[in-house]
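User: quick one, sequence for these tokens?
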């Protein structure tokens, strides 16, 4: 086995967590605007910051005027739950899952809402055959599977004349991948991912067909206040115009605004996507050289440029069962953390044993390049 030396140079920022992700370069708490803190979120100032955050999000994401955007409670999970509980049940549903978060939505719909949904699954590292999905049903899927590093390559498989709603959890895709808004009726994300914001709040985006569903259908089950998007049977648009359902963290909003302004200063979405793509290319160049590691996502076309998941190459994992591989990952992660060379690089707890390196735009490519030799070193230390 190759013995890799301890590298001399460390990543300048060893933050490679897949959520909360690295803060934007140059971020510091002192740089946040604090004028709205300690004020009512319904004051002119408080509301203006909420509206500004949503307008800037709309601009950077390239969201068409047909789509509504709101800050909602409960981070991305809250946004997805709001959509599932408010919209599903009118027509049959198809739940598409290929990793842990997608499977979580299956559980919700099948076990909690008790809908007789069709479940379409693929194992970790693969994508199901999207062309087989029945688009006369409501379809729920995860745009970028954060725990397997497999993403939907594009929206070409989605019909413009679909009868059902397309509901996408895009939390680890927004601000790093192109999202075809006209093909999606509901999109959700949280700030803690590709922009390095904080947890707590989610963003819910609704297209016109989702609004139509809200106004033409009332679920058979009760809806808590926190999920309610209609008032007297009509779409409550004020939630999408800065009147949040309940009190948001204005500090988290200021932090999100910092990240959005940083993104805009770089050149917006194209620049963000390029940074993530460059990071994926840098990881890939190292993987091709390392010899002991491989991508979990088998098809490069659906390989994530944000949550890059890696597994041990067959030769490298020789003789190690899953438990031993997990122990190896744990050891590597703690060696790297102790050296302040890399934080939070172990794969997700439910995924096959391996590493997961966040490559979204807030991570610098130079840091990804500096990380490779440290992973080699940790591997030879832990294996030795
Ligand atoms: C695809 C996906 N969905 C949902 C979540 C949950 O997000 P949150 O913790 O922001 O609710 C995550 C978090 O990693 C995720 O990656």
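Assistant:
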């Amino acid at each position: 086995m190759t013995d890799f030396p301890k590298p001399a140079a460390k990543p300048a920022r060893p933050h490679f967590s897949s959520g909360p992700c690295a803060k934007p370069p140059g971020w510091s708490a002192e740089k946040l605007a604090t004028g709205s803190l300690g004020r009512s979120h319904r004051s002119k100032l408080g509301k203006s910051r909420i509206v500004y955050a949503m307008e800037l999000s709309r601009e950077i994401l390239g969201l068409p005027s047909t789509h509504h955007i709101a800050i909602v409670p409960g981070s991305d999970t809250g946004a997805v739950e709001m959509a599932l509980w408010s919209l599903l049940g009118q027509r049959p549903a198809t739940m598409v899952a290929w990793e842990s978060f997608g499977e979580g939505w299956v559980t919700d719909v099948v076990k909690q809402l008790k809908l007789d949904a069709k479940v379409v699954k693929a194992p970790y590292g693969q994508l199901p055959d999207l062309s087989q999905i029945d688009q006369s049903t409501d379809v729920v899927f995860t745009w970028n599977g954060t725990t397997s590093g497999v993403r939907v390559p594009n929206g070409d498989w989605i019909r413009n004349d679909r009868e059902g709603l397309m509901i996408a959890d895009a939390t680890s895709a927004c601000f790093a991948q192109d999202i075809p808004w006209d093909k999606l009726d509901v999109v959700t994300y949280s700030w803690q991912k590709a922009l390095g914001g904080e947890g707590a709040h989610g963003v819910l985006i609704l297209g016109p067909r989702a609004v139509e569903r809200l106004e033409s259908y009332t679920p058979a089950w009760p809806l808590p206040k926190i999920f309610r998007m209609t008032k007297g049977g009509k779409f409550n648009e004020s939630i999408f115009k800065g009147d949040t359902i309940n009190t948001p963290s204005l500090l988290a909003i200021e932090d999100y605004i910092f990240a959005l302004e940083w993104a805009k200063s770089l050149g917006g979405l194209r620049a963000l996507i390029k940074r993530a793509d460059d990071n994926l290319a840098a990881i890939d160049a190292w993987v091709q050289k390392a010899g002991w590691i491989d991508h979990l996502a088998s098809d490069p076309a659906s390989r994530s440029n944000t949550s890059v998941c890696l597994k041990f190459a067959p030769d490298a994992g020789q003789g190690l069962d899953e438990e031993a591989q997990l122990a190896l990952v744990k050891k590597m992660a703690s060696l790297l953390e102790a050296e302040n060379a890399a934080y939070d690089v172990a794969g997700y707890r439910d995924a096959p044993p391996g590493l997961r390196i966040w490559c979204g735009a807030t991570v610098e490519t130079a840091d990804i390049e500096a990380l490779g030799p440290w992973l080699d070193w940790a591997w030879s230390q832990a294996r030795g």
